Amino acid sequence: MQLYNKLDRKILKERLMQEPFQRTTLSFYRYVRLSNPEALRDELYLQWDRLQVLGRIYVAREGINAQLSVPHHHLDAFRKTVDSHAVFRDVPFKIAVEDDGKSFYKLSIKVRPKLVNEGLDDDAYDVSNVGNHLDADRFNEAIADPDTIVVDMRNYYEFEIGHFERAVRPEGVTFREVLPEMVEKLKDARDKKIILYCTGGIRCEKASAYFRHHGFKDVNQLHGGIIDYARQIKVKQLDNAFLGSNFVFDNRLGEHISNDVISHCYQCGKAADKHSNCRNEACHVLFIQCEECAEKYEGCCGEECQSFLHMSEEEKQQKAEEIQRIREESKYFNKDKEVLRKKFKYFEG
Ligand SMILES: [Zn+2]
Ligand SMILES: [Zn+2]
What we know:
Layout: H1 9-17, E1 23-31, H2 37-50, E2 54-60, E3 63-71, H3 75-83, E4 94-95, E5 107-111, E6 132-134, H4 136-144, E7 149-152, H5 156-161, E8 162-164, H6 175-185, E9 193-197, H7 202-213, E10 218-222, H8 225-235, E11 242-246, E12 255-256, E13 275-277, E14 286-288, H9 291-296, H10 303-309, H11 313-318, H12 320-331, H13 337-343
Parallel strand pairs: 2-5, 6-10, 7-9, 9-10
Antiparallel strand pairs: 1-3, 1-4, 2-3, 8-11, 11-12, 13-14
This protein binds zinc ion (2 copies).
């Protein structure tokens, strides 16, 4: 029995592009005790592979977090498979807005120790003691009050291409960095009304409980995150308080919520809001690149990486030391923004 996909990325991509049907990109999550995530993982894989579902799904003892695409004609059947598990019954789906359905190439379901790693023990605070969930209307009302504090619980590269007006800017790269960072930044505002938001709402489930644990009295969170906010403002014709693009972890790497471009190409400084990974596999650094620079540098972060693209295997062997250095540097870029500042003239983080 094969419970994962063995074909390579190129073949998978071609196959996806040639599909004669449309796909819907959606996401859902639920914190719920799962006694046997391994068995559940195998069962879900069989059910969803049969329906040609593609996506990235995590299961853990604390619940499920799923981002996936489903063929239109299998949407009802997909809903039934989800509801067939009592623990997931009626879990709300969040449908992506700007969507060509080509977001995922394969189906990957992984068992993780946790869904969202805040780096704390299970008994460090009460995860079920969450804040008030706000829908888009109530979020807009709350954000309009200048006394409320709006907190972005994502990370610096998600923030840089798009965020809510007046939001407190995260410096950290991972949730486990941003969580203590924000509690520290806001330690004198425990009596104020606080509204948290993240991409899909799942990080805020934990963040709001953590803020409450630290004595914040009026903790609120955007239900369903930016993804569902974007959907609601369209459906209910509400004002949009989000500027720029929403960073998403799939091939889109960003979907436009407003028409503003609030960030810059790291290489030339021109307005741009598309992240990409450097095409030199040894580097793979994540950065913002405009279309012209993408063409000029062939998708690379600079001339050095670009030169590796055209090398023969023999030449690469000779340059093994340099490749190793690039690999080392890039491995740390997430931890150390110094590397990004050194590499890119227009990096602002
Ligand atoms: Zn550029
Ligand atoms: Zn590079």
